[in-house]
Amino acid sequence: MLSVQTVHYHDSIDFNRPGKHLYELAFHYDGEWGNALVPMAVINGQAGPGPGLVAFGGTHGDEYEGQLAVWRLMHELDPAELCGRVILMPRLNTPACVAGTRESPRDGANMNRAFPGNPRGSLTARIAHFVTTAVLPRVEVVLDIHAAGRGGQQFALCSSFHEVPNPTQRAEMVQVASLFDTPFVLIYSSEMASGLLTDQAEAMGKITIGGEFGHSGGVLRQGLAHAYQGIKNVLRHYGMLAGPIERVDPHRGHPPRLVAATSLEDYLPAPISGYFEPIHEVGAAVGSGELVGRLYDFAYIGAPPLEVRSPRDGYILLQPFAAPTSKGDTMLVIAREVGP
Ligand SMILES: [Zn+2]
């Protein structure tokens, strides 16, 4: 077992130190004595190719595929077999991960809305500020592994990124996102929310990839495989790890489909509260006007199930997994296929 260093003064970390070093970054609580101890590995391998890479899990505490994949790599990656620098933060919002919740129970904040962070802000804002100022400037590739959490929705397995104006950055993001070998690579809207970790990394010009690898607070075996092998494939792609790129889902007959849901109108809110019956599995191709679900309003015996129809041709990237669906919740995302 490697020794672990507790760090209170974060600017004392030597990110160039050769070998593998495990840290627990102490961020003091806002309202009482004590600290969130945020795990981080800094691995400096041999001199050689490699742009520097960071992978995050646990940006949301109730999403486990990233926590497991990044934790496992933290212990498996051997600096003797690695070129360049890898930083791994498997449980970024540590208090949320400990509690198994999306937001931190310490300050109620969502890490993925807290960027760029604030050095004098609450706990979550201070962790985000550390990432913005100490981690992101030291890498060129940023991977943030998500899953749908306990919110009740299910995504088709996808890696993802926002549309960015720089065509070189975009082309490389398509290529790197495809290395996760998920059925879909989703280009999603940056209008849904702001303050994302990926917003910050993209603005800094980093090759920035997110993704949704599970749902409902479980561990999806196939999602974990895409997350774990995907990160290794990215390292291989940049020559940081030896060996060929591996298919994660060799039985699937097609490479990842590049699909887009970049307009707010692609994110359909539930028109009423009810219980959702899916007609398809997520990932299914549907046509415009096709029946994709029914919403049951059990409050009124006279109400027949409300038919939910697809507004366009495309693929179901998101639909409810939990039956109860509240009016206004994002109920359906139909993404259309786009060229690379
Ligand atoms: Zn998430």
Order of helices and strands: EEEEHEHHEEEHEHEHEEEEEEEEE
Total DSSP helices: 6
What small ligands are held by the chains?
Answer: zinc ion
- State the fourth-level CATH superfamily of the largest domain: Zn peptidases
Query: Which residues sit in consecutive blocks of at least 5 with pLDDT less than 50?
Result: none
Give the biggest sheet. 15 strands, mixed
Morphology: globular
The CATH topology of the largest domain is Aminopeptidase
Strand content: 25-35%
Q: What is the CATH class of the largest domain?
A: Alpha Beta
Number of strand segments: 19
Beginning-to-end CA distance, first to last residue: 44 Å
- Rounded to the nearest angstrom, the radius of gyration is 20 Å
Description:
The longest helix has 17 residues, at 221-237. A hairpin with a 6-residue loop joins strand 2 and strand 3. Helix 1 (64-76) packs across helix 6 (221-237). The chain has helices at 64-76, 94-99, 123-135, 167-178, 197-203, 221-237, and strands at 4-7, 19-28, 35-44, 53-56, 85-89, 141-144, 153-155, 158-162, 184-188, 207-212, 257-261, 267-269, 274-278, 285-286, 291-296, 306-309, 314-320, 324-325, 330-337. Helix content is 20%, strand content 29%. The model has no long low-confidence stretch (mean pLDDT 96). With 340 residues, the chain is of the alpha/beta class. The strands form two sheets. It has a 15-stranded mixed β-sheet that branches. A four-stranded antiparallel β-sheet has the order 16-15-13-18, with no helix packed on it. The protein folds into two domains: 4-261, Aminopeptidase, CATH 3.40.630; 264-337, RNA polymerase II/Efflux pump adaptor protein, barrel-sandwich hybrid domain (OB fold (Dihydrolipoamide Acetyltransferase, E2P)), CATH 2.40.50.
